[in-house]
Design brief:
Elements lengths: L15 H5 L5 E4 L5 H10 L7 E6 L7 E6 L3 H7 L6 E5 L9
Antiparallel strand pairs: 1-4, 2-3, 2-4
């Protein structure tokens, strides 16, 4: 889904509360700026704070970087790592997997 606008923005029609309880993998595009509000909304709606999350910047490029943390802290971990767009956030069990 798009994270271009925050979850409380009137232009956002994503059912964040519904998504928080689906148990599926959540992929957020264009959400670096709004990641703190998005993750807070998901956790407040019932998504476990320790759900694995990853932010992938420059995916597929030699400059690709990945940071991982629980969903409750992924926004601050990404900020501390100076992750900037373009980046994708993946939330769910798959975000905890290492690719070999």
């Amino acid at each position: 889904m798009s994270g271009h606008v925050g979850p409380h923005d009137e232009r956002n029609d994503v059912d964040w509360a519904g998504i928080a309880t689906t148990g599926t993998t959540i992929v957020i595009l264009m959400g670096v700026k709004n990641l703190p509000a998005i993750t807070e909304t998901l956790v407040a709606a019932g998504l476990a704070a320790d759900t694995p999350a990853a932010v992938i910047a420059d995916a597929g490029l030699p400059t690709m970087r990945v940071v991982r943390a629980g969903v409750a802290s992924i926004a601050s971990v990404a900020e501390d790592a100076a992750i900037s767009p373009p980046a994708v956030c993946v939330i769910g069990a798959v975000a905890g997997l290492e690719l070999t």
